[in-house]
Amino acid sequence: MSIAKKSAENISKVLIEALPYIQKFSGKTIVIKYGGSAMSDAYLRKSFARDIVLMKTVGINPIIVHGGGPQIQKGLKKAKIESEFINGVRVTSPEIINTVQKVLDTQVNKEIKDLINSWGGNAQALSGKRLAFIKAQKNPKQKKLGEVGEILSVQKQLIFNASNKKIPVISPIGWDKKGNPLNINADYVACYVAGALKAEKIILMTDVSGIKDSQGKKISEM
C-alpha cells in the first residue's frame, strides 16, 4: 500500500469516527478551560490550536478561557517576587497582581490568539483594562487572599458577537468598579462563562486529576 493511500484511509477513518460528534455539536457552544501541561509543551500547544480551529471550521463554537500558572510563576521569579498559596489559591498582593495581570493579559492571551491564527483561525482577545470583560469584586470573607476577586458579571454580548465568526480567548482577570485588576481562578471563570452562555459542554484541560464522586472515583461527566 502506498503512503498516500494509507494516509487517505487514516484521514477517512478519523472523519468517520468524528462525524457523529460533529453532527451533535454543530452550532453549539463549548467552553474550554485551557491550562496545565497543554500550555507548556510545544507539541500540545500546536495540537490544541489546530483542534480548536478544526472545531470552528466544522461549525462548533469554541470559547477559550485560559490559565497561566507556570507563566505567572516564571514572571514572578524574574521579578524576584515570592508568593504563597492557601488551599490552592495564590495569595495575591498588590505587587503580585500587577505581574499576574501583565502576564495573563499581554503575554499568555496574545500567544494563544497568535497560535490559533497561525493555523488559519480567527481568534479575538477578550482581555485588558480597556475592555474590562469580567466585572468583579473582592470577597470580604477572603481578605487574607489579597487581590483575588469573585465574579459579578461577564459581558455576554461581547462573546456572542465574537463567536459569530471568531474564536474568543478570555483572560481570567477581573476588574473592580475602580478599574483595579483582580486575580480569578480560570476554572471559576470558565464555569461562570459556560453558565452565562448556557453552553452545551464545558471541558477543563488541566493537570489536576479531576472531579471525584463520594467513593473517590474520577467522573468524566456531571
Q: State the major sheet.
A: 5 strands, parallel
Tell me the β content.
Answer: 15-25%
> Distance between termini?
45 Å
Report Rg: 19 Å
Number of helices: 7
What's the overall average pLDDT, rounded?
A: 87
| Number of DSSP-assigned strands | 11
Order of helices and strands: HEHHEHEEHEEEHEEEHE
Kindly describe this structure.
The chain has helices at residues 3-25, 37-40, 42-57, 69-78, 94-118, 156-163, 186-197, and strands at 29-34, 61-66, 85-86, 89-90, 123-126, 134-138, 149-154, 167-170, 173-175, 181-183, 201-205. It is built from seven helices and eleven strands. Helix 3 crosses helix 5 (94-118) and helix 4 (69-78) packs across helix 5. Helix content is 44%, strand content 21%. With 222 residues, it is an alpha/beta fold. The strands form three sheets. Strands 5-8-2-1-11 form a five-stranded parallel β-sheet, sandwiched between helices.
Task: Sum up the structure in keywords.
single chain, 222 residues, alpha/beta, 5-stranded parallel sheet, 7 helices, 11 strands, globular
Tell me the layout of helices and strands:
Blueprint: H1 3-25, E1 29-34, H2 37-40, H3 42-57, E2 61-66, H4 69-78, E3 85-86, E4 89-90, H5 94-118, E5 123-126, E6 134-138, E7 149-154, H6 156-163, E8 167-170, E9 173-175, E10 181-183, H7 186-197, E11 201-205
Parallel strand pairs: 1-2, 1-11, 2-8, 5-8, 6-9
Antiparallel strand pairs: 3-4, 6-7, 9-10
Helix pairs in contact: 3-5, 4-5
